[in-house]
Amino acid sequence: MAEPPTPGLADSLRRLLGGALESVQVRLDLLAVELEQEKRRLLQALLLGALALLMLGVGTVLLVGLLLLLLQEGYRLAALAVLALGFLGGGFVLVRLAAGRLASPGGIAAATRGELARDRQALAGQTAVEGTAAADGKRAPLSSPVPPDVGARPGQGIPPREGGP
Q1: In a domain, 62, yes or no
Q2: Rounded distance between C-alpha atoms, residue 125 and residue 123, angstroms
Q3: Residue 143 resides in a domain
Q4: Helix pair 9-70, 110-124: axis angle to 10 deg
Q5: Dihedrals phi, psi of 152, to nearest 5 degrees
Q6: pLDDT tens track for 108-158
Q7: What is the value of pTM for the model shown?
Q8: Closest C-alpha among 101, 102, 117 to residue 30
């Protein structure tokens, strides 16, 4: 009777490559989910922001008009100047704050970066991992491609990473 062939180097390489490709596929799925969430969050924020700016603008113009009509004739020009300077100063401060927010690093694909960092650590310390799960033939389960905050309200997702990219 012939014995079944023992797995050789080619089979081991094939399994290793299959595991690596599966890991890459999971990471790409996670990245796709995160990018879709970020796109939806940004579009919602832009739409809500545009509507809010429109309503605030109309309300501000109406309020300034009302204030100017309530003042006596001699004080209207001074009041208009004070209000204009106040609005311009507030607008300048808000533009600076918005520019600062855009310059800071965001949290796009934070979960994907975290998973890839764990993969690098696992590969760097592979000898320690091989002594545990690999010795008994069990394979560590891959994490889910969907981050735990899926379905969370915008702005409550994964917090931005501290420091640079």
Answers
A1: yes
A2: 5
A3: no
A4: 150
A5: -70, 160
A6: 777 778 888 888 888 777 644 444 444 444 444 444 444 445 444 444 455
A7: 0.45
A8: 117
